[in-house]
Here is the input.
Amino acid sequence: KDIVLACPMNMFPQAEPSKTPQEIWEDFSLSFTPAVREVVEFAKHIPGFSALSENDQVTLLKAGTFEVLMVRFASLFNVKEQTVTFISGTTYSLEALKGMGMGGLLDTMFEFSEKLNSLELTAEELGLFTAVVLVSADRSGIENLNSVELLQESLIRVLRTLVSKSNPCDASRFTKLLLKMSDLRTLNNMHSEKLLSFRID
Amino acid sequence: FSDPASNLGLEDIIRKALMGNLEERPE
Here is the structure.
């Protein structure tokens, strides 16, 4: 049976049949590792992040990396054309990806990308929103909750000021943006379930 | 395997990157 890992972060979504499942999994790991490293580098540049305990930094990154990548790569989802461009540069149609077993998760990713893009965030707003997503005090396993909460609150305050300043006539824009965090959490859970099913298979 | 992040070896990649230990991908 051919193994298909149709993740936009996978350089080789349709694995060579001669490869063992272990080799396919290792190729996949090598494909997404640079993106994960970029998320870590991004986190290091969030003022106050490096002052958190090492364990809390790891906990936040483990829990939030998918969500950060989803925000960062939302532009790979072309809602109008119904296509997804993988990091390899190959563009797949929604229909083809559904044929590879990417059903509900993909639809929800498209929906999220469309909603996020409709907010037309500036690069600065997007970067700050991504920092707020990463520094989420409600991730399980946080040791020093107070420190993470304080950092998240200060990031949210700056984001609110920034969003209000760039679009003072639209008071709901900030609320809409914060609601995207809940959408990201849903996507994260769906993605985790998908990963588990691959591993079990 | 109850933790997808562990399945992916995410913690190892994150810890290495946090410590600045960026091993290059072998060709």
The CA atoms of residues 5 and 11 of chain B lie 7 Å apart. Chain B is about 50% helix and 0% strand. The mean pLDDT of chain B is 69.
